[in-house]
Amino acid sequence: MKMGRDLRGKTGKSSWRCPKSSCLSTLLIIFLVFSHSTVITALNYTYHKRVASLRLARIQKHLKKINKPAIMTIESPDEDIIDCVHMHHQPALDHPLLKSHQIQGAPSMRPRLSKEHGQRNYTGSNTVRGAWQTWHQRGLCPKGTIPVRRSSVDDVLRAKSLYHYGKKQHRMHLARFSQAPDVVSGNGHEHAIAYTQASQEMYGVKATINVWNPSIQVKNEFSLSQVWILSGSFDGSDLNSIEAGWQVSPQLYGDSRPRLFTYWTSDAYQATGCYNLLCSGFVQTNNKIAIGAAISPVSSFSGGQFDITILIWKDPKQGHWWMSFGDNTLIGYWPAELFTHLADHATMVEWGGEIVNTSPNGEHTSTQMGSGRFADPGFGQSSYFRNLEIVDSDNSLSSVESISTLAENSNCYNIKSSYSSEWGTFFYYGGPGNNPRCH
């Protein structure tokens, strides 16, 4: 008995047709399974979309908090957006400890120059010039405002999380070389530094730093050259640090340009502090320098050498830690309220370079420090710090006479110090990273 009509074509193949009741049951099962699968897929898509929307909303809420309303906006040739924000509306004043803080227009006094300054030529040769900032090509912010580099959603998304945006990695293990400040072994941070632990109390640091454009191998690595002012215990959670210099950080800024930066922490990088103005704390008073903006021009091999001068000192009367840039241009200050140990004085200062080595492809990174050359070639090839000075208890600048130097792996990055009547205490430093001798 035939259950259905035999359909046979030219190929000789046949097709079987099921009974009406069986077909309906089969189709119903297929429909239900397909429909259930579609519903699950739709729910998952909606769920993931909802999570993304919530994250985006949190990011936008945070950006609204740190991107203050601008009186004027300047679009830099390097695509940075610089907002001119009213000085009394700046991010610093959102800090809980600064709710009633009155902005100080200027320090009560600046560090006094020592006698040796009158005999020293700070400009060096004609090939050494001060570096400035790229956004100046499009204008300057009016008086009464401060320039703030605008943060974007993309900036935050490049960070590990919203919480980590603008912050240094929390350093869980503070295994240090003997007596060396801010040197952390085993977490990928490598240094070539000079440091001093003067017998007297220290109230400031000064140096002139050569600016280069080192290459970064992967986006979550960085290369920086900076000064550190430190106080507190190096193996605990109460380390206070004030830092400033230049850095190349694709993850933080989205490009590979050297940029002026600042940093502070009062608890060993755990919860307090941040880069630049990405959290409340640092009070800016200057309308011409944008912290976090690109420095231009930069040094070139056997060509023009460009450097920046940074001075950080504690005001003897107000207790705030002031920062000046270049030819004594005041940038602003870290209020005394932010700190514990640095509310008094510094116990150590440091100068030098730092990189992050994530060991891409299982090898040492080729991220460069300084110019990407070792210290040996010297001027025109190697990066330098010159005229190293500290501020003493009398609020006087004095040349550093004795420094210690350290490089964890001198086959990757090294440092060599010296002294001259023109440059005072100075050193060359840096390196290429990955090379046949660097492991």
From TrEMBL:
<protein>
    <submittedName>
        <fullName>Uncharacterized protein</fullName>
    </submittedName>
</protein>
